[in-house]
Write a structure and sequence with these properties.
Length: about 325
């Protein structure tokens, strides 16, 4: 059997609004060196380097220099696709597929996730590659460890996807866990480039056509702004995953977190020995002596220009502070 070329596609477009003030537009969470002295982006590159023949980075005009610095440090050759304006994941993945040969298998991962138990991760990747080689679009579902409300879910029967579910409330999340056939939606995918593009053409033809035009006019991987603005900004889940008849899911047992909130950052930092006081309070971003009085499970986040103090269970609400500052056009987001 002829071996397909494997490309690891890294999506770096997120701004990490729920990790403000650590995560800023000028340095989103995937480039912060607070995780074992490495950034999440660097860890993403490292864990996949033996699984793929090529590396491709789909980033934006604001962060491509940050990716370049990491990849040059490790002398990693890569294909650079630079979006002039963010157009969501359907377009970002389309650009990667247009930049590939028809039969190339793409492993698409976000750049800001923590993954453990690498042997189980590699097994899941190999299973996905086998399914992708047969013409399926594969998504990775994580076997849940708790009724998490911060993730989307995949309802499955065997390796077939029954439905995708939005982030649930606590009652629904507990119901999903009790049923036993729901997985966390990891936002990772695997497929042949031509299969993805064929499905995009069928289910989101406007995204296909406008992305194709923008890609064909790229200059050294940089996409034209005016053409990019014509592309509908929709997620790959909505464009293809929820509609295509070629979807399979790999039920995955590796440790996974999208570190999408300070609660998940807190949980991860504890596993690598970050200190908390006797009441579960944690300081992030400073070595200054900090005392907590009369509070439990509180996180103090320090940066040069802004501080954040929050109860761990209210981590999802950080986004509302971000949106408030956005409405005020605050420089604190930069």
């Amino acid at each position: 059997m002829e071996m397909n070329s494997i490309t690891h596609v890294i999506l770096t477009g997120g701004v990490g609004s729920r990790l403000w003030p650590l995560s800023r537009k000028s340095k989103p969470k995937q480039y912060l060196d607070i995780f074992d002295g490495k950034s999440l982006f660097e860890m993403t590159v490292d864990r996949n380097k033996n699984l793929a023949d090529k590396v491709m980075v789909v980033g934006n005009i604001d962060n491509c220099h940050l990716s370049k610095a990491v990849l040059e440090k490790s002398s990693t050759e890569y294909i650079d696709i630079i979006e002039s304006t963010p157009r969501n994941t359907a377009a970002a993945i389309a650009f990667a597929a247009f930049a590939s040969s028809a039969d190339d298998i793409l492993i698409v991962t976000p750049s800001d996730h923590i993954i453990g138990e690498i042997q189980l991760y590699e097994q899941a990747i190999q299973e996905a590659i086998e399914k992708a080689a047969k013409g399926f679009i594969v998504t990775f579902g994580i076997v849940p460890t708790k009724p998490e409300t911060g993730y989307g879910y995949i309802e499955r029967k065997g390796d077939n996807v029954v439905s995708f579910r939005e982030k649930p409330n606590q009652v629904s999340a507990r119901d999903f866990i009790a049923k036993g056939n729901f997985l966390w939606n990891s936002g990772m995918f695997c497929f042949k480039a031509n299969v993805f593009l064929e499905e995009l053409k069928v289910y989101a033809p406007e995204v296909y056509e406008t992305s194709k035009l923008a890609w064909e006019s790229n200059k050294d991987g940089i996409l034209d702004l005016e053409l990019s603005l014509t592309i509908p900004s929709i997620s790959v889940d909505y464009a293809i995953m929820e509609r295509s008849k070629k979807i399979k899911v790999v039920s995955s047992h590796f440790e996974w977190s999208d570190l999408g909130s300070f609660e998940s950052v807190y949980d991860y930092l504890i596993t690598i020995g970050h200190s908390v006081d006797e009441n579960g309070n944690m300081v992030i971003g400073t070595n200054n002596y900090t005392a907590f009085i009369g509070v439990k499970d509180t996180i103090f986040v320090h940066t040069e220009s802004a501080n954040l103090i929050l109860k761990k269970e209210f981590s999802q609400d950080v986004k509302s502070v971000y949106h408030l500052l956005e409405r005020e056009k605050s420089s604190l987001l930069n």
